[in-house]
Amino acid sequence: MTEPSATEGLRRLPWTGPQGEPEYVMPGDEAEHLADRAEDHTISAARNDAAYALTMADRPETSPEELRRLVRTLAGAVRDVVSVADLREERLNEPVYAPAARAMEEALRAALSQR
Fold first, then answer.
1. Phi-psi region of 49 (alpha: psi -120 to 50; beta: other; left: phi over 0)
2. pTM across the whole model
């Protein structure tokens, strides 16, 4: 039998500590609301960056340097959104959420296979 880790049952936050180490919080802590808002902001910013990049890509006067800058911005946005997805996946795999997440996944797979 494996020993429970020191972080089991804790939520990993979407920011790191002063030395770059992950930070965790107990469920229900005030910091959880800040973490939710930070994750939502990350997703919203990525959507805005994508919309702006598409607009700029369609403009013939957009320079190659501007396009390179947009690609760098979008790469950062993708990296940040993937980080949010990883954090949310960790929470869905917690014992309390896992059965509901599996049921939702099965329902989605069944719905998609009927197309």
1. alpha
2. 0.71
